[in-house]
UniProtKB/TrEMBL annotation:
InterPro entries: ARM-like, ARM-type_fold, Armadillo, F-box-like_dom_sf, LRR_dom_sf
Gene3D superfamilies: Leucine-rich Repeat Variant, Ribonuclease Inhibitor
Protein name: F-box domain-containing protein
Pfam families: Arm
ARM repeats: from-to residues: 386-428, 463-508, 527-584
PROSITE patterns: ARM_REPEAT
Protein species of origin: Gossypium raimondii
Keyword check for Repeat: yes
């Protein structure tokens, strides 16, 4: 039977003028105009809906499709779905118990199920039991955000999924830690970010797991006593990952906890890379990036390969979460260790790891969302580590998740003027301009945000003008974030005489006037009017003034822009007097 994977894609959300963006969202129908309410579900067995192959639908579409089906309709999926073996639901928050149970019931060949950050908020232990009963070949199960995972669900996995090797129950509110001790086949286990674990009993039962080689307890309230138990009593444990565990870090003497009986403890205390290095032979001791050293090593040990692949995976998860939380006490960590680890993860051969690393870079560099402020030291640490080239390479990927996350990282980093100059000199403007042409709105939006940030500096006025104008026409009624980025970039570019001519030639005046006249998003209207005002300022040297005057609604937009500026100024008493003295009241009338 052939191999088939089922991937549910990733989606993100943007805002701001010279902007940064960290948070994620998702939606249905990005690449298709299919309506769930009007689907002929009877045609699903042929894998075609309204002329579209449903198995190729993008992003969250298939998940929502499954959620809408009744029992008869679900049954018709059977002949088309029996060969799915991989299911990847990163960033998909629409998945429910019903949908996951249907997937499990109709995909008995499933071997790997992965739901990434915040994907399982509507999933309960019942769906996990359904997976266990229906998918006995399951080898890998990663779920993020399941609120409670009870003993019945874990015991069902232990009983029915005898080949289960890699389990991640992360970011949960409650896990039955005693039942975890029944997962006798599991080699790799992560409970990172999980709250309310009883570490006394957890250390006792998990230490007895006969096959467990790697355990990740990062971002938990684990204590020194439990970690000591893991290191001294576990039968086959080789790696214990405990990144950002404040209780343990407050109790431990860092000089005594690097390793124990050949077991490696990975913490912030003595250096992440230093810990990983101890897995290798002596000739790795002097390398700067031990993960890259491993990737380049020939004739590698298979067992060690599995461990390092897992280490990359859990590092990318934890560093993304830590970056999003942006704790002040970790400022030194990012400069001394974190940036270097993220740069290494950008070089991973695992696309999911690369993508999470890019998202983490976009997040960790931001120190103030509302004011679009970045930490220049962090941004320049990425620059010094060749991170701009790495991110631009990822932006060229054919994988849209990588495209959008790399573009977002480039955009946020480019708020720093040194990074912006490096992006421009490395051909980043052309890369972002090409991404702005994407049929995926989220990719186009991230690219437009990057062009917006690059349009600010005088030394690297952004190209991509035609792409920005075309983007406005393509998405004119779709989204405020994307349009605000595009109009903001054109407003910045319009302040330059040469660029203003290019905007006019590319049809920018017509596009901006259209938005100023018809766009329902207030911020976009304001940006469009500001851009028209900048273009009008160069009327003496080109025909912009005449073109603006001929566009319906353009003059009204400029009048409103001027009136709005006077209105804002008028809240100050002295300004009101000055406006009146300058004839501003009569001008407004």
């Amino acid at each position: 039977m052939g191999f088939c994977s089922f991937v549910v894609g990733k989606k993100m959300k943007l805002d701001m003028s010279r902007r940064v963006r960290q948070k994620r969202e998702h939606s249905w129908g990005e690449k298709t105009n299919i309506s769930l309410e009007t689907l002929d579900y009877g045609s699903l067995a042929s894998a075609t809906i309204s002329g579209v192959d449903w198995t190729t639908l993008p992003d969250d579409s298939v998940i929502q499709l499954l959620s809408y089906l009744n029992y008869r309709d679900r049954a018709s999926l059977a002949s088309a779905c029996l060969t799915f073996r991989l299911f990847n639901g990163d960033f998909c928050r629409d998945i429910t118990d019903v949908a996951l149970s249907v997937i499990a019931a109709r995909h008995e060949m499933l071997e790997s199920v992965h739901f990434g950050p915040d994907a399982c908020e509507r999933i309960s232990s019942d769906a996990i039991k359904a997976l266990a009963y229906c998918c006995p070949r399951l080898r890998r199960l990663w779920m993020s955000g399941v609120k409670e995972i009870n003993g019945d669900a874990i015991n069902a996995l232990a009983e029915h999924c005898r080949k289960l090797k890699d389990v991640g129950f992360v970011e949960s509110d409650n896990i039955d830690e005693v039942a975890l001790g029944n997962l006798n086949s599991v080699k790799f286990l992560s409970v990172a970010g999980t709250r309310n674990l009883k570490w006394g009993s957890a250390a006792q039962v998990l230490s007895r797991l006969p096959c467990m080689v790697c355990l990740d307890i990062s971002r938990t309230d684990v204590n020194l006593s439990a970690i000591t138990r893991f290191l001294s009593s576990s039968q086959n444990l080789k790696v214990l990952c405990a990144l950002n565990c404040p209780v343990f870090e407050g109790e431990v003497d860092s000089n005594t906890m690097q390793s124990h009986k050949g077991r490696v403890l990975l913490t912030f205390l003595n250096g992440i890379f230093k810990g990983v290095t101890s897995l290798f032979a002596d000739n790795s001791k002097n390398v700067t990036d031990v993960l890259q050293y491993w990737r380049r090593t020939k004739n590698r040990d298979k067992n060690l390969d599995e461990i390092v692949v897992w280490i990359e995976w859990v590092f990318s998860y934890s560093l993304l979460r830590i970056a999003e939380n942006n704790l002040k006490e970790l400022d030194d960590f990012w400069l001394t260790q974190g940036a270097a680890v993220l740069l290494s993860l950008l070089r991973s051969s695992q696309e999911e790891v690369q993508e999470r690393a890019a998202t983490a870079v976009a997040s960790f560099v931001v120190i103030d969302d509302e004011n679009s402020a970045v930490d220049c030291q962090r941004a320049e640490a990425i620059l010094r580590g060749d991170g701009i080239r790495l991110l631009l390479d990822l932006a060229r990927s054919c994988q849209e998740g990588l495209q959008s996350e790399a573009a977002k990282a480039i955009a946020n980093l480019s708020i720093d003027s040194k990074v912006a100059k490096a992006v421009a000199e490395s051909g980043g403007i052309n890369i972002l301009a090409n991404l702005a042409k994407s049929m995926n709105r989220l990719v186009a939006e991230e690219a437009a945000g990057g062009l917006l940030n690059l349009s600010v500096g005088d030394d690297h006025k952004a190209g991509g003008i035609k792409a920005l104008v075309d983007l406005i026409f393509k998405w004119s009624s779709n989204t405020d974030g994307l349009l605000e980025h595009a109009t903001g970039a054109l407003a910045n570019l319009g302040a330059d005489e040469k660029c203003s001519m290019e905007v006019a030639v590319a049809g920018g005046i017509h596009a901006l006037a259209m938005l100023a006249r018809t766009c329902k998003f207030e911020g976009v209207q304001e940006q469009a009017a500001r851009a028209l005002a900048k273009l009008a300022a160069h009327g003496d040297s080109n025909s912009n003034n005449a073109a603006i005057g001929q566009e319906a609604g353009a003059l009204e937009a400029l009048v409103q822009e001027a009136a709005g500026a006077l209105w804002n100024l008028s809240f100050d008493d002295k300004n009101r007097e000055a406006i009146a003295a300058a004839g501003g009241v009569e001008a407004l009338v």
